[in-house]
Design brief:
803 residues; alpha/beta; 8-stranded mixed β-sheet; 6-stranded antiparallel β-sheet; 21 strands; 48% helix
Length: 803
């Protein structure tokens, strides 16, 4: 029959109970959840109220890249044929230049972003940016040497004086400036403090000024700046920046593009500037040589008193003049080649650009020089973001050395060709000179002097023309990037987002109590709920006994419909079902003291007596007898007197309980020196045979099994065992201990009674016993009227009552 009682339900029902168990477990703490959710939402509201909003500022630019059709300067393409505009760019390289620390630092310095201004409020501060009436400046060189930030607190007085307090290099500063502008001298450098024009004064309010190292601010902006191409087929680049001040973000992106274009122009103009220096240098030299040649011609004519050429040499001279012209051109080209050869052979010019627009006529040499200059410019740009030991730079150095060899070879080849051409012209010239050999000597000398003059004049005119072309190249250089979408800040902040913050706060408000409850349960070693019992205990379940808050130990009375009385009725019904027809003896025990086994056994006996059954309750916890005290019996003798042989009449030891005429008690009696040996005696078996003959039910209040072996000795005389545990008192290990006892069959027909539950907590006892069915208007679930409630100060006494 006990096996039938142990069958609570099938697996599906158990699974359903587990779901309810979890639900009711957390719902019992619903106040915690409400408080947590309200607190989290309040924190979220305060955070959104005082958090600084972050906006997304975006812009789009197009970078000149002919490979992707992104030439933003097509209107100036007419100059490209003249070699006046630079080559195309690689978009990926230009993106790296835009994101380089040197470029960002230039923007920070240009906008003064290394200095921030905040107006302090009662709770939070607001950013002023360009609206600060005070402006603080520091020398750029001193800014770059800052090891830590400078923080100043400024307060403007009504009389336009300024109070300055702050911390500079661990040194406190406190000073009043009567007039502005003024210079504040610190250990880190001089600060210039002045009023910003056209900005209203902020009187008697504190303005916090923070000065940081520009490179540190640049790194901060670099983490918030995103530069990415729109696709692989275009040269359009999107710029986006996360910024707390929309105006500052727009200014930053505008200035970033401006600085990038200025740097790109400077790079492109380097070739033209080097060419200009080369041409100016050559013009100065040729100007002196031309003046000397003209002076020689003038002096020779004056000394020889020459006025006209001989007519008989006109024809030969006309023919010879053509070759003279060719000779002038050849020598001009040779001079230019010699200049270039001297320039490139100089070790000091190893990585200097080679002038190309100086009048050279050989297209191969010009192309080779342009390619060499392009490689040098690429090396300079790489060195901005990489060191000279970078593999890419080293590879480019090898390429430059190879190109320099190509330029040297090309110059040598051109020089050789020009030398051959010059020699050929000289031969032709000498041929015609022989034809006019009879001309006057002065005419021949004059011709040589005149030829030198023409060479110098021709070279001088050509250099002047190239200088004008080079100046045009400097003036016609176009921007490398063109803004196609002006910087625009988002209308709503991208952070923090109110809906997400409130959602997270709501979820946290639910999760935090769950985590706390879960962790509390995880580290809880005492039994706290019916769920703990279901998980740990394998014993059949008898009943749940609510907490008894009255001073008396008697909780069951006739015609009492209180919740605890109903609980003992449920226990009584289940005990009768457990015992069956023939069995009478029920043993109540627990793992340790204080779990309420004596209280439960006493009231179970009273409940059985109310059925008009003759019931005997025996106090066999002979080491710590309490039964006589619970029943307010003034007796000195008990069952130990009989077991010790000092009393033969067993019936004389049995006394009325004084609670119900059907309930009788047999107290423990004096504590013997050898309790276990007394319980082993045959006299105990004879006593229980006598009890079975004279009583309908026998309730045995035994000792805790976790402390002594007395209960196991009594197992031979009982029919069933009610194992009592107490909520918030019993250890979880005790239930596992009871499982071992049941599996080893050390006690007969073990079943479980849960004592001390709090019926005020909803969900405890769901689906079992009295936990359902109360509150239907028949007085169930209410305490018996007129009974005195126990006060808080009697809490310690409750432990004695439930022990």
């Amino acid at each position: 029959m006990s096996e039938e009682f142990n069958k609570v339900g099938d697996e599906n029902q158990s699974e359903e109970i587990n779901i309810q168990e979890i639900l009711f477990k957390y719902l019992s703490y619903w106040k915690w959840f409400v408080i947590s959710i309200v607190a989290c939402l309040a924190i979220a509201f305060l955070y959104l109220r005082y958090a600084t909003p972050v906006y997304n500022v975006s812009a789009a630019i197009i970078i000149k890249d002919d490979k992707k059709g992104g030439n933003s300067t097509s209107e100036l393409s007419v100059f490209e044929g003249m070699g006046l505009l630079g080559g195309t760019n690689n978009v990926d390289n230009e993106i790296e230049v835009l994101k380089s620390k040197s470029t960002i630092k230039s923007v920070v310095n240009a906008l003064g972003l290394h200095t921030s201004y905040r107006l302090k409020g009662a709770i939070s501060s607001s950013e002023l940016y360009l609206n600060s009436p005070i402006e603080v400046k520091m020398d750029p060189q001193a800014l770059d040497t800052l090891s830590s930030g400078i923080v100043l607190n400024l307060v403007m007085n009504p009389d336009r004086s300024l109070q300055v307090k702050g911390l500079v290099n661990q040194e406190e500063i406190s000073k009043t400036l009567s007039t502005l502008p003024a210079i504040l001298r610190t250990s880190l450098g001089d600060l210039t403090i002045s009023y910003r024009p056209n900005i209203p004064s902020i009187v008697n309010k504190e303005i916090e000024v923070t000065i940081n190292r520009p490179i540190s601010v640049a790194k901060s902006y670099l983490t918030r700046l995103a530069v990415a191409p729109t696709s692989k087929t275009t040269s359009v680049v999107n710029l986006s920046l996360s910024e707390t001040n929309r105006k500052r973000g727009e200014d930053f992106l505008n200035k970033l593009v401006d600085v990038y274009n200025l740097d790109a122009m400077a790079d492109k103009n380097k070739v033209a500037l080097n060419t200009k220096l080369f041409i100016d240098d050559r013009i100065a030299i040729i100007d002196k040589e031309l003046g000397s040649a003209e002076k020689n011609v003038e002096n020779y004519k004056r000394s020889q008193k020459m006025t006209d050429l001989q007519t008989d040499a006109q024809l030969s001279l006309q023919t010879s003049s053509e070759y003279e012209k060719k000779l002038v051109e050849a020598e001009t080209q040779l001079n230019l080649v010699n200049y270039l050869q001297k320039h490139i052979s100089n070790r000091a010019n190893r990585y200097s650009l080679v002038p190309s627009n100086v009048g050279l006529e050989d297209p191969t040499l010009i192309a080779t020089i342009n390619e060499y200059n392009k490689a040098l410019l690429e090396r300079e740009r790489l060195l901005r973001t990489a060191s000279e030991n970078n593999p890419t730079v080293l590879a480019l150095n090898g390429k430059i050395d190879a190109l320099r060899g190509n330029v040297t070879a090309a110059i040598g080849s051109v020089h050789h060709g020009l030398t051959i051409a010059k020699n050929d012209v000289n031969r032709q010239t000498r041929l015609f000179n022989n034809q006019i050999g009879n001309a006057p000597t002065q005419e021949r000398v004059f011709t040589e002097l005149s030829r030198q003059q023409q060479i110098k004049a021709s070279l001088f005119e050509m250099l002047l023309q190239k200088r004008e072309e080079n100046n045009l190249s400097l003036a016609a250089t176009a921007n490398n990037a063109k803004m196609i979408d002006e910087p625009l800040a988002s209308g709503t902040p991208v952070s923090p987002k109110g809906s997400i913050i409130y959602l997270v706060a709501f979820i946290l408000g639910i999760v935090i109590p769950i985590v706390i409850i879960y962790i509390s349960d995880l580290f809880q070693y005492r039994i706290r709920s019916r769920a703990d019992i279901d998980k740990l205990s394998k014993l059949p379940f008898l009943a749940e006994i609510p907490t008894h808050e009255e001073e008396t130990n008697v909780a069951v009375r006739e015609n009492d419909n209180s919740s605890i009385a109903e609980a003992f009725r449920v226990l009584r019904t289940n005990l009768l079902f457990l015992l069956g027809v023939d069995k009478k003896v029920i043993l109540f025990t627990s793992t340790m003291g204080g779990e309420g086994k004596s209280f439960v056994s006493l009231n179970s006996a009273i409940s059985l007596a109310l059925l008009n059954k003759k019931v005997l309750i025996i106090g066999l916890d002979i080491r710590k007898p309490r039964m006589a005290e619970y029943l307010n019996l003034d007796v000195k003798k008990g069952i130990t007197n009989y077991l010790s042989g000092f009393e033969d009449d067993l019936d004389s030891l049995i006394v009325p309980s004084g609670i119900n005429p059907n309930l009788f008690a047999l107290p423990a009696g004096p504590v013997p020196p050898n309790p276990s040996e007394q319980l082993v005696k045959d006299s105990l078996d004879k006593a229980f045979e006598h009890f079975r003959e004279n009583f309908d039910y026998i309730i045995v209040d035994s000792a805790p099994i976790g402390l002594v072996t007395d209960t196991f000795i009594l197992n031979r005389v009982v029919d069933a065992t009610a194992y009592v545990c107490r909520v918030n008192w019993s250890n979880k290990a005790a239930l596992k201990f009871s499982n071992d006892i049941m599996s080893q069959k050390k006690l007969k027909n073990m079943s479980l009674v849960v004592n001390g539950i709090d019926i005020a907590k909803k969900g405890y006892g769901y689906g079992y016993g009295y936990g359902y069915g109360y509150g239907y208007g028949y007085g169930y679930g209410e305490d018996n009227p007129g009974k005195k409630k126990k006060s808080r100060r009697n809490k310690s006494k409750d432990e004695d009552i439930n022990s």
